[in-house]
UniProtKB/TrEMBL annotation:
<feature type="transmembrane region" description="Helical">
    <location>
        <begin position="71"/>
        <end position="92"/>
    </location>
</feature>
<feature type="transmembrane region" description="Helical">
    <location>
        <begin position="42"/>
        <end position="59"/>
    </location>
</feature>
<feature type="transmembrane region" description="Helical">
    <location>
        <begin position="12"/>
        <end position="30"/>
    </location>
</feature>
<feature type="transmembrane region" description="Helical">
    <location>
        <begin position="112"/>
        <end position="135"/>
    </location>
</feature>
<protein>
    <submittedName>
        <fullName>Putative membrane protein</fullName>
    </submittedName>
</protein>
<feature type="transmembrane region" description="Helical">
    <location>
        <begin position="193"/>
        <end position="215"/>
    </location>
</feature>
<keyword id="KW-0472">Membrane</keyword>
<feature type="transmembrane region" description="Helical">
    <location>
        <begin position="147"/>
        <end position="173"/>
    </location>
</feature>
<keyword id="KW-0812">Transmembrane</keyword>
<keyword id="KW-1133">Transmembrane helix</keyword>
Length: 230
């Protein structure tokens, strides 16, 4: 049976990402991460982080020839609340920011691009969050427990590498699922945007992690003061 290449490309572009997004969210929900929100200080920090994440996901800039720069805050969410709650928080920010952008652009309810939810969640939330969690686990095992190791490793470098990995995989996915000869950005332009976004995410995450572990360490669930300040 002959299957047209365009049909394969359409399938690859539409179905795997929503399926993967639903699977990741189901796993996060099964961990029942909301139990940590029983503590009042964490509730305030989580609600504040939702506002910050929604603003980050709603703000975007275009540099050069349509290179889109958009910060994600995925590493910051994982560092503050752990992987499961971070995924749920990023999913909420994804939906709210999409609705906000639709409202600001004057889109009617039927015209909202709901299909963008899954790709945005995978490339801006799930992949960088998973990379962050894996990298932070390695850092906890391999490096000494020191305050500056936590700030630079868990905050700055984890955000930098997670953003680069997620952005690089997204570029590879777009190249693989795009029709040959189609109009669009070059790979070099896309990777330029990835690098710029990665350093922006790293700077923002490293700065906020440094502030929080010094002034509000109880907001950062992955930080144990008895270990890193001993």
């Amino acid at each position: 049976m002959h299957i047209e290449k365009s049909s394969i490309l359409e399938f690859l572009a539409v179905w795997p990402l929503p399926t993967l997004a639903v699977g990741v969210l189901l796993w996060a929900v099964m961990q029942r991460p909301w139990q940590v929100l029983q503590r009042e200080p964490i509730q305030h920090a989580w609600l504040g982080s939702l506002v910050l994440l929604t603003l980050l996901w709603s703000a975007r800039a275009t540099v050069g020839h349509d290179v889109v720069i958009q910060l994600t805050g995925a590493t910051l969410a994982v560092t503050m609340f752990g992987l499961p709650l971070a995924l749920i928080s990023l999913a909420l920010a994804n939906v709210v920011s999409l609705l906000g952008l639709a409202y600001l652009s004057g889109q009617a309810w039927p015209d909202i691009g709901w299909v963008a939810l899954a790709p945005r969640f995978i490339w801006m939330a799930a992949v960088p969050a998973l990379v962050t969690a894996a990298l932070q686990a390695v850092l906890r095992r391999r490096l000494p427990r020191h305050l500056f190791v936590f700030i630079l490793g868990h905050g700055y470098f984890a955000a930098l590498l997670a953003s680069m990995v997620a952005g690089g995989l997204r570029v590879a996915w777009l190249v693989q699922t795009s029709a040959p000869g189609g109009a669009g950005l070059s790979v070099a332009d896309r990777l330029t945007g990835v690098v710029i976004m990665a350093f922006g995410d790293a700077f923002l995450t490293g700065m906020l992690v440094a502030i929080f572990v010094v002034f509000r360490p109880h907001w950062v669930l992955t930080f144990n003061g008895r270990e890193y300040l001993a």
